Amino acid sequence: MEPKLIDGRAISAAVKADVARDVTEFTQQTGVIPGLAVIIVGDDPASCVYVRNKCRACRETGIASFEIALPKETTEEVLLREIDTLNRRADVHGILVQLPLPRHIREEVVLRAISPDKDVDGFHPVNMGFLLSGRPRFAPCTPAGVMELLDRCGISVDGMHCVVIGRSNIVGKPMAQLLLARNATVTVCHSHTEDLPFYTRSADLLVAAVGKPRFVCADMVKDGAVVIDVGINRLSEGLCGDVDFATVSAKASAITPVPGGVGPMTIAMLMKNTLLAARLLACPPVEPRA
Ligand code: NDP
Predict the structure, then answer these.
(1) Which domain holds residue 103?
(2) Would the CB of 65 count as within 6 Å of ligand 1?
(3) 97-125 confidence digits (pLDDT tens)
(4) Gyration radius from the chain CA atoms
(5) Which residue among 45, 80, 115 closes a domain?
(6) Domain count for the chain
(7) In whole numbers, what is the pLDDT of the chain averaged over residues?
């Protein structure tokens, strides 16, 4: 049986079209234009491309974008002051600091300085806490994008055994929480996992977020599994994922390609989170009394 190719480009375009429609409606109702501020420190070429793509997606969806480009010598103190200003600005609903930061700036201090109400990347401990408690507010964009792909392809993880390879704060851990919140049985594997293939072969759904080209090969995958490749590895011949697509696609029931799978979803989910931030700031939810 031919595996179903999960088309991240088409699904990302559909998500952005939905966001554009909802932004128009929100602005008509409230007079508020959702705004996203993106801070970049230094001139790392890959980061510059990511920031440009984020600003382009804002234009496509009717979200205002504010790009703040700071030189690589910027001190942590100056960056924190910039974030403080953005936290107070009424026209900025989402704030994103492009990672990685130069080595002299402490990433965790910077991410914690962003107001949790404007933390559209979902990396603030408060938003991590919401996620852990099963009530995600701003879920980190890449794993949220994986859930959106599964939803839009009609793949329910309820009752599935899902194996996530990778436990980073950006991908692996939030991915596991999002799957758990949907009633999957989740196993998280990492570099200290003994006999990794034992776990991956029992996965109904396998997520690879390792950062190693073609790490997952066919004999690590069960027949009929759904395989989600989060990896983005830049090789001289071009981009490749963490999954050996050529061999694994012969066994999988559904699989994401690289490029064109999970990658395009991250920015689409950032737009969705920015609209959510604008909505929550415009009409904060009333917390029920205990
Ligand atoms: P990290 O390097 O932060 O994490 C990699 C994880 O893989 C770690 O938890 C590590 O374990 C685990 N790992 C490494 N080697 C092995 C091994 N031999 N066996 C089992 N586990 C192993 O990467 P990220 O989570 O940030 O990113 C993962 C991949 O996803 C990268 O290719 C990255 O480029 C891509 N990515 C893609 C995005 C997108 O938009 N599509 C966004 C973000 C990332 P340990 O914790 O023990 O070290």
Answers:
(1) 30-115
(2) no
(3) 999 999 999 999 999 999 999 999 999 99
(4) 19
(5) 115
(6) 2
(7) 96
